[in-house]
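Batch job 17 of 40 flagged for manual review because the log was empty.
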Amino acid sequence: MSTSGSNKPCVSVLGLGAMGGVLARTLLQAGYGVTVWNRSPERATALLQEGASLAREASEAINASNLIIICMIDKAASQNVLSNLDPMLDMSGKTIVNMSTGTVDDVQRIARRVSQHNGLYVDAGIMCYPKDIGGQHTTILYSGNSDAYHAHESTLKVLAGNPKFLGADPTACTPTYLALYAFYFGAFAAWLEGAVLASCAGVSVQDFKALSPIMSDMLVDGINTAADRIAASDFGGEQASVDVHVAGQEVVLDALQRANAPHASTDAYLSYCRLAQTAGMGELDIASLFKAMHP
């Protein structure tokens, strides 16, 4: 089965956790025929009531569609499912899009496994929470078989309207995905630290939220400036040197400590600054931390 009654391609979704269930539901709501499989089939109950078909085995779900989306707790779990398939299962003409989190080694093993079944492999990284699936500005990163990605691009855009294809190397997606989340959660941890410090001083979280764009706008500008400086190897410290940043953040650290507030994010930032100072970069721009931190 490759098309639904609406002439839209059928899609199979393996894994019905918080994210996988939303992926399946979004496709159903867009008129796609959807076959679902989960190790615990009771997770499919609501989706079946909304029109999905239940596969009793993973192989049945794979046979049902030419586009198979896997979204499990991690790539190790998805690899385990694929490893237990009948070795004779033929995936010719089928594309596996793996949206689970994992390592580059996981990607290489899974891509080989799919190839052994004559299938096409595309790796993916979801850059949002479930509530934003289906959004026009939502991004999912992809890399892998180019023909397979472009053949299914219109369907994948139903899930995220702003997809980014990173090329034919299936291992390109995962390190980029992980790097972006390292940035996001590091920045979010710093925001939480600031929100706690402000709350200790009597500033409500809502008021702090209203003021936060001052710094998020400054952060975007700082990222753009730092990236340009790094690309040009221009680390002149005329705006504010590493030494100046250390002096300022030590005041922030003192305020956090006096408030008995956690300060791991500030500690981390200061440790990177001191790494640059130790390397003799104290008088250079803060973008020089990239050089000090780089292996």
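Reviewer: the log was empty due to a logging misconfiguration, but the result itself is present. The first helix runs from residue 18 to 29. Unflagging and moving on to job 18.
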